[in-house]
Amino acid sequence: DRNHETLEERDQKFAGILKDTISRGGAVVIPAFSLERTQNILYALNNLIEDKKIPSVPVFVDSPLAIRVTEIYREEQKNFKAAIKREIAAGDDIFNFPKLQFTESSRESDKIERTKNPKIILAGSGMSAGGRVTRHEKNYLGDPKSTILLVGYQSLGTLGRKLYDGAKEVLIEGEKIKVQAKIENISGFSSHKDMDHLIEFVEKCSATVKKVFVCMGEPKASLFLIQRLRDYVGVDAIYPEKGRIYELDF
Fold first, then answer.
1. Rounded to two decimals, what is the model's pTM?
2. 49 by DSSP, 3-state: which?
3. What is the C-alpha to C-alpha distance for residues 236 and 174, in angstroms, rounded to an integer?
């Protein structure tokens, strides 16, 4: 039921949030999925730092899985987009820039807190449902100079969703933490199609599609998309009911 920022809008917003937090002397904590999301953010950070659109500060990738996935990305550069290949051929190591540190061990992770602000921390999980990021949120949620930057969908019931919904206090590892840090959200890093692109997808298939089942997303968002599909495309779109049987004719 929503659209993402454009690539240009996303990068401008990303740079603005980072510059604002850095100028306040805070930490930017980014709960990020290990596969694709972390690598996309590293690429964006690489460009912002190299183009001097944000100051160069310590950047930590604090996720053993994300670190291993990033190594796979390095090994599979032959599968990158042509534009990215040209950047690499010109000498740009897109996953390496000044002050970037990969903290694989717990001991290395523990040292992050002792690194003076400002700094940027990427850690899993993407919805703050576990992993190393919750410890960083515990450390910095009470700091008004710092920012928790959400860059993906936050499922109902997760810590990330509570922060997204504006909770003033959260429970982390049995401890109540007052939320005094800024909570920001960027949807443009999402790998999913947004509302307009989903409608466009159905439009292109509308000559042969008999029925559309909208079965991903929260009920409110799904029902909104269903109405848009009915109104704009004229297709029979439904939200499948749990326990009901639907017969498909081929």
1. 0.89
2. helix
3. 48
Contact between 215 and 186 under an 8 Å Cβ cutoff? The reply is no
What pLDDT is recorded for position 145?
Answer: 98
Sign of the C-alpha dihedral computed for residues 133, 48, 59 and 184 taken in this order? negative
pLDDT digits (tens, 9 = 90+) for 92-133: 999 999 999 999 999 999 999 999 999 999 999 999 999 999
Cα four-point dihedral sign 62, 66, 68, 71: negative
Residue with tokens 């993402």: 4
> 52-75: per-residue pLDDT in tens?
999 999 999 999 999 999 999 999
Q: How confident is the model at residue 185 (pLDDT cuts 50, 70, 90)?
A: very high
The conformation of residue 112, written as its DSSP 8-state character, comes to G
User: Distance between CA 43 and CA 85 in Å, rounded?
Assistant: 13
For the cut 80, the answer to whether the pLDDT of residue 250 exceeds it is: no
Q: Residue 134 and residue 160: Cα distance in Å, rounded?
A: 10
H helices present in the chain, as ranges: 7-24, 37-50, 64-75, 82-89, 106-110, 133-140, 159-164, 195-205, 219-228
For residue 70, the SS3 value is: helix
164-171: list long-range contacts, CB under 8 Å, 24+ apart.
170/141
Phi, psi of 123, deg, nearest 5: -155, 155
Edge-first strand order for the sheet with 182-185 is 100-102, 59-61, 119-123, 27-31, 147-150, 182-185
Task: Fill in the amino acid letter for 169.
Answer: E
- Residue 188 contacts residue 4 (beta carbons within 8 Å): yes
